[in-house]
Amino acid sequence: AQSVTQPDIHITVSEGASLELRCNYSYGATPYLFWYVQSPGQGLQLLLKYFSGDTLVQGIKGFEAEFKRSQSSFNLRKPSVHWSDAAEYFCAVGPSGNTPLVFGKGTRLSVIA
Amino acid sequence: DTAVSQTPKYLVTQMGNDKSIKCEQNLGHDTMYWYKQDSKKFLKIMFSYNNKELIINETVPNRFSPKSPDKAHLNLHINSLELGDSAVYFCASSQSALNTEAFFGQGTRLTVV
After folding, report:
1. Cβ of B90 and A44 within 8 Å?
2. Of A81, B35, B43, B78, which cross-links B90 as Cys (Cβ 3.0–4.6 Å)?
3. Closest Cα partner for B92 from B7, B28, B44, B32?
4. Which residues of A fall within a CB distance of 8 Å from B40?
5. What is the least distance, in Å, from the CA of A112 to any CA of chain B?
6. How is the beta sheet containing B64-70 ordered, strand by strand?
7. Of B65, B75, B55, the residue nearest A94 (C-alpha)
8. Is A68:A55 a contact under the CB 8 Å cutoff?
9. Residues B107, B8 contacting (CB under 8 angstroms)
């Protein structure tokens, strides 16, 4: 069964610092991978997605992610974090017919001045 | 023009009551979902419909009954509400059930007292 692991429950970074959020997946075939962001009291917004091709994908709000098949990872990065980036970040894999989009448990990002 | 809209946004009700949450998408998508987000932010699939047909039904109490009158709507009816049903419920839609991103509504925060 497909699964997603986000090892970091909570990360705190200083404004202007770089960010990397980790995501590892387990999937039987070529994975379709996503990063979503959830601001407090809001729904989930898609940041970026990987289906195939270039393993470095660019998303909205200056985020990027790199797919590494050998490490089963899809880590999210941003070179310079803004205070407005404070939110919950979810990595997800799928869907595939009878298997839904499966989410990791999320990483909460706090940004300090 | 909201792509995936849920009503109501907040719902406070007493134990034992029956309530419904409505969801509509105007994206022309074939697939719709209900997810439950618990107090620890974990997102768990409940149901998925493709072209009005139920394709995913996770281990959910049968007090929860989804209904899809057409492709654009997926409503969730909950009977005999319990304290443990308190959560945020998200509706989502995707173009198909295969390898496409999901678009989420703003969520319905259900509080059972």
Report:
1. yes
2. B35
3. B32
4. 105
5. 22
6. B4-7, B19-25, B73-78, B64-70
7. B55
8. yes
9. no
